Amino acid sequence: MNRSLLYVTIGPVQSFIEQARKTQDLYIGSLLLSHLSQTGMNLIRSQYGGTIIFPNPENDSAPNRFVASLSGHYSIDEVGGQVERHIHEEFMRIGKSLIGPDKLSFFVSDSFRQSYFEQLEAHLQIFWVGIPYDDYHRSYAKLETLMGQVKNIRPFRQIEEQGRKCNLTGEHNVLFYRNPRVDKEGKRKFFIPEEAIPLNGERYVSYIREGEYLGALGFIKRFAFMDEAFKNKKIQFPSTAKVAMLDILTDEEIENDHIDYAYVFDILNENPPANDITEQQRRESDKLIQRLKAEKKRPNPYYAMIVFDGDSMGEWFGGGKLVHKEQLEAFQEKFTFCLGEYAKWAKRYLNGSRGKTVYAGGDDLFGFINLGCLFEVIDQLRQEFDRQVNQKLQGEFELSGQLTFTAGICIGHYKEPLADVVRGARYAEKIGKKVEPKRPDEQEKDAFCISVLKRNGEHLISALKWGVSSQENESTPRLLQQILALMTKHFSDTYLQVLSRELFAFTRKPFREMMEAELRRLLNRSFKKVDGVSREETVEELLSLLMKLWKISDYLPTINQKAVGVQTENHSILNFINTLYILSFLKRHQADGKGDGQ
């Protein structure tokens, strides 16, 4: 026994990243977590000569966990304790640096310091387990079991606080705010603690909006870019309004960080601006407004958020699908490398005119997508994951299954509270993970689920497998893109409205021949006559695609009954109709379209 395994996790992940009001809050949370993981891994490699097994330490987006192999010359208790202290000290150093006199010009009282550091101390949770090993496969399985046991015991630090809570976390008292602190009678407003600091100057306009209240963690998310650890990082992250508008922006406009896209939407919609902006932001935004008006372009106000996670990744990385267990160490090395390369590709592919990644760890991804290229992007992400990770592993090792991932996609209005869209995407991913195989050649999960949060409160959701069939190039996202293109060019939505009413009474899925005949009749009536376009050929083309969709509509698990386009107990009918309603929604909300504002 001359080697040891060390497994470290940093949390809490969900609140660290996803408690957010702005897209930049998500990004900074991810960046902070990644930086703390890198801090721990760097210590292991530099001070103890350890080898990082997972993740690829060269990947910019490190997950909240890492596994390392260490020489038996070091005490595993010593190394684990030192890594925990090092990560904790770095987190507290960042917090301390941001309230230093060289960063922000405000006075910091002793009571403020006490509350600020108490909030930070109470947030970070670091768990680690370590064991010596000789049989790598058995030891790694034991390591995973031990970590699960450790994380089941979650210690917490209780802080007694009375007063208004942080807008981002909802957990701790406000320590920073942008709002008049007293009312007309000179009384304190909104239960703001006495030690809280106002950030009312123009220099803070881009980072804290009027009426926002932040605790210590919320403050760090907004101002971490001022710390030396992130001086070489581009912290600016596009707003949801910008993501929604990406497909009608020039490359220069995409790179311009001084355009306020919510202001652009407000002016184009003839609404008074909702937020304060700087004079430079106003000038740059007005240039974009003038161009869009001159070119008669109307931006789409909706965007998509995607989260995906590799299916059964713990089982895969632990060698559960590996036939020859003695190859586990080599398998994990190759697995980590492939995931790292895929993560780099995913960031290059998505960032720019298609959207933006919050993080890309290889086995998971969280990002934003412009609706104009939604199906193209999710199809490419899935195809490249198979090519760069699954197929390369299959080529070198004997495995008992195919490595896949499941995605949750939520489409929301740029004014929709960001937390609601995050919850919608996570819920969609959860529904996708419940998808069960219907054919012998299918695996569990390996699906995507799309959720739409409309401004009128209606909620649509559908779940589908990635592949239409086992045939080559039969991709469901490409099928949906083809249906959308034909619906947009040649058909009104009347067929869908009539069909949903007709299917209301069905408790069982109608026979294929019955469905095909009725769809043909309705499509003929909904066809929009265009010179030079054959009605019969176009109807048959869309009918063929819709029947493929009908065939693969059996995958929707039990969902919240509010999330329906038609009231029916049959999940196959519900899934089919909801998918068509989602496509109809996308048809109305394409850029330059005449959206209904909902």
TrEMBL record:
GO biological process terms, semicolon-separated: defense response to virus
Coiled-coil parts of chain: none
Keyword line: Antiviral defense, Nucleotide-binding
Domain of life the protein comes from: Bacteria
Pfam families listed in its UniProt record: Cas10-Cmr2_palm2, Cmr2_N
Domain CRISPR-associated protein Cmr2 N-terminal: 5-69
UniProt key word Kinase: no
Every Cas10/Cmr2 second palm domain range: 302-436
Protein name according to UniProt: Type III-B CRISPR-associated protein Cas10/Cmr2
Native source organism of the sequence: Geobacillus subterraneus
